[in-house]
Amino acid sequence: MLDVADLACRRGERLLFSGLSFQLRENTLLHVRGRNGSGKTTLLRALCGLLRPEAGSIRWRGEGIGELAEDYNRELLYFGHLNGIKADLTGLENLRIASTLDQDPADEPAILDALAQIGLEGFEDLPTRMLSQGQKKRVALARLILSKAPLWILDEPFTALDVDAVDLLQRLIAAQVADGGAVILTTHQEVPLTSGAIQRLTLGEDGGSMNQYWPEQPPQAERPTKTPH
Amino acid sequence: MFKVFYCVLARDLTLALRRRTDVLTTLFFFIIVVSLFPLGVGSEREQLRVLGPGVVWVAALLASMLALERLFAADYEDGTLEQLLLTGQPLALLVLGKVVAHWLLTGLPLVLIAPLVAMQYHLSGTAVWVMMAALAIGTPVLSLIGAIGAALTLGLRGGGILLSLLILPLYVPVLVYGAGAVSVSAIEIADTQPYFYLLSAFLMGSALLAPLAAAAALRISLE
Asked: Is this prediction's ipTM beyond 0.90?
């Protein structure tokens, strides 16, 4: 699905990584690891097309993401450090707007259902500024339930979540991978997959000048029984 | 396509209605600035009549300037702007939606309050109508051009000052022809039509080009 060749990114004067190449196929989870400051977020933003890489190409189903522009964005769901929800709008309104702009407007029952699944039943009509950090994050994560995008790019999605929410998110990610989608994520946590492959990419850091990467691709990972979701 | 535009418009209007102070500050700023001049210059009828159009326009310029900073800043801070960039919709269309909402909240109230504040300048009935019409055509241009500056200065420290330096010079044509139309309407044989044609041309041009430029500037600012 996603072909990355010879990618290099720079933040100010510092070259974060260079010569990064990997391929992402369907049914795959790409787990990007690396120390703080090694360029994980920068890599994800470059993969979203939010940031222009210094060198190299990123191709989606054979076409450069720069040329695809909006067509690529439609295939993509990005979840960044900021929740991307409006504090003055309710969870319901936030999700309704997000789904309308994503061009598959979800109807109200579907949104309410997604909010209930993520454990926010009874909080739908509260402005999200009244919610706790974790609950805000849950509102944002409810987008994953509504999303039909084949590629998810998630930047540290597990922070600020409690055990239940982490568990739910892991199941969502597993379901997305099992459904033929792909997920790229950064986390310091392990994500148990129920099907599909896990690729790992470690961004090295060496004084900020030379950077190494060593993608390892385990054999078409363990395939335990599919858990229904 | 219209649905997306309407969605962004409705979103920004809802947000503004939940946080009304922002809208009201712009309006009161305008009223206060316009009212300060008669107090400072004195109440001589003829003098005020000459000053009136220019003062109202400069105040409108500054008021619309004041509100511009917030056009993208709030969305930038909570990450929704990033999401808007990734929606798979033409960004220029989303920007246009935001600008129209911005004008409805900060430009339109000025147009409506203008006759009231113009009373302090002893403007004639026709002059007031001309002023309202000129403001109605001119203030959207201010919002549109301002959006480019707001997008360019997004996330910069001291962006507010830079924004004024960047945008105020670009407002000059609108100021010249907007205030010109009102001044000319006082002369009986003169025709205000050319002024309106020019203002409308500014509006058409900026409605077409400004969203594209602002969208490109947003992409740069978010990198």
From this structure: no
